[in-house]
């Protein structure tokens, strides 16, 4: 897979031309969005990864195989940002979801260890209302013993009201689960 960083944006005027299908990776701050993008593209430092939540502050566009855009965005639910900063990021993301006409699907990341948060459920409901297709991915699956993984995924499926067969599990540190996600995204992009 070929990948390159294209540009960062805060508003519509700065987005790349909407001339290709686009997939955006969303989820709570620190859930592993940027790590997901690096593991998915098999690049070490394509997207910024940090131990402190709130690492990604801009909308970052990557070109994949010259054919589609993959997008990294700030996470939600990070309490340590100021109210003004949270509001600003919220407006930036609202504009993105309302305006971006080439958006093909969202990859909704949730932490495999925990039940989806209230914020996660609100995001999923928002995408359902907007008729934006959702690919659900549980991250950090390496942190759960193998025998317990299926139960965690079932719980996530129930909470998000997304069929278990449509929930993928990945580990960005161990590079597990990415072929399946890639296959799924290719299907959506080709539609
Ligand atoms: P923001 O940009 O702040 O919204 O965070 P993010 O969702 O982009 O998370 P990021 O990829 O920066 O990862 C946050 C932390 O989780 C880092 O310390 C990563 O190394 C760690 N991490 C991400 N994915 C995995 C995973 O699959 N397994 C494990 N064990 N750690 C992970
Ligand atoms: Mg990030």
TrEMBL record:
Keywords carried by this UniProt record:
Cell cycle, Cell division, GTP-binding, Magnesium, Metal-binding, Nucleotide-binding, Septation
Its gene name is: engB
| HAMAP family linked to this entry | GTPase_EngB
PROSITE patterns assigned: G_ENGB
Q: Does the keyword Cell division feature in the UniProt annotation?
A: yes
Give the EngB-type G domain ranges: 19-191
What is this protein's function?
Answer: Necessary for normal cell division and for the maintenance of normal septation.
Q: Which family does this protein fall into?
A: Belongs to the TRAFAC class TrmE-Era-EngA-EngB-Septin-like GTPase superfamily. EngB GTPase family.
Picking any one GO biological process from the record gives:
division septum assembly
Q: Per the record's keyword annotation, is Magnesium included, yes or no?
A: yes
Q: What's the domain of life for this entry?
A: Bacteria
Q: Which GO terms describe its cellular component?
A: cytosol
Q: List GO molecular-function terms, semicolon-separated.
A: GTP binding; metal ion binding
Q: What is this protein called?
A: Probable GTP-binding protein EngB
The record's annotation in PANTHER family points to: ENGB-TYPE G DOMAIN-CONTAINING PROTEIN, MSS1/TRME-RELATED GTP-BINDING PROTEIN
> What cofactors are annotated for this protein?
Mg(2+)
